[in-house]
Design goal:
With 187 residues, this protein is α+β, with helices and mostly antiparallel strands. The protein has one domain: Alpha-D-Glucose-1,6-Bisphosphate, Chain A, domain 4 (2-Layer Sandwich). Helix content is 33%, strand content 40%. The protein has a 7-stranded antiparallel sheet. This is Polyketide cyclase/dehydrase/lipid transport protein.
Length: 187
């Protein structure tokens, strides 16, 4: 499987501000301990399931199953970097069409927390998608140009990201507040 990095299938980044200081945020902890029901609430009805696991060599993974546009997508996100304020996840994602056909794309998911004024944090959810050689073959077999495929993916992916970002941010904030409250109670 070859990722074609010089072609951009889609790119979207949306931000949402939360009333939690940056030093209380832990995106990696949130991501790798995210309950399935909470994931599902973050983009109804698109989010189907999630889970955390590891690669054979011990790297953390997040598995997400979601509907983006008309495709059912299984994301196999491997952590390239996973810190409290920044996670960079990379996936060769399986995409199933409404007719049951399967192809693959490369998705880079960046989860970013930045301090802003006072005790507030800006959460940014950035998703970059590149085609694979299998995807290029797939669209060619279906009489679609790359430009058409990219336009469809940009529209669907951008819409999905726009809807899930505020819910992810608020979920991260709830986890941070609960952890801070538990710490105070324990003292």
């Amino acid at each position: 499987m070859k990722v074609i990095t010089d072609k951009l299938l889609s790119l979207s980044a949306y931000s949402h501000e939360i009333d939690v200081p940056l030093d209380q945020i832990d995106i990696a902890d949130w991501l790798f301990n995210l309950p399935e029901a909470e994931y599902q609430r973050c983009c109804v009805p698109d989010h189907v399931s999630c889970g955390a696991t590891f690669t054979d060599d011990g790297r953390k993974m997040s598995i997400n199953v979601e509907k983006i546009g008309t495709g059912l997508v299984i994301q196999h996100y491997v952590a390239k970097e996973a810190t409290p304020s920044y996670c960079r996840m990379n996936s060769i994602s399986d995409v199933f069409t409404p007719t049951g056909e399967r192809t693959q794309v490369n998705v880079i998911w960046e989860l970013i927390a930045e301090a802003i004024d006072g005790n507030r944090t800006r959460y940014t959810n950035k998703v970059t998608c590149h085609p694979t050689d299998a995807f290029m073959t797939f669209i060619e077999q279906h009489g679609q140009t790359f430009e058409q495929a990219a336009a469809a993916r940009q529209a669907a992916g951008g819409d999905h990201n726009h809807r899930e970002t505020p819910f992810f941010a608020e979920s991260i904030a709830r986890k941070a507040r609960a952890k801070a409250a538990a710490k105070v109670a324990a003292e």
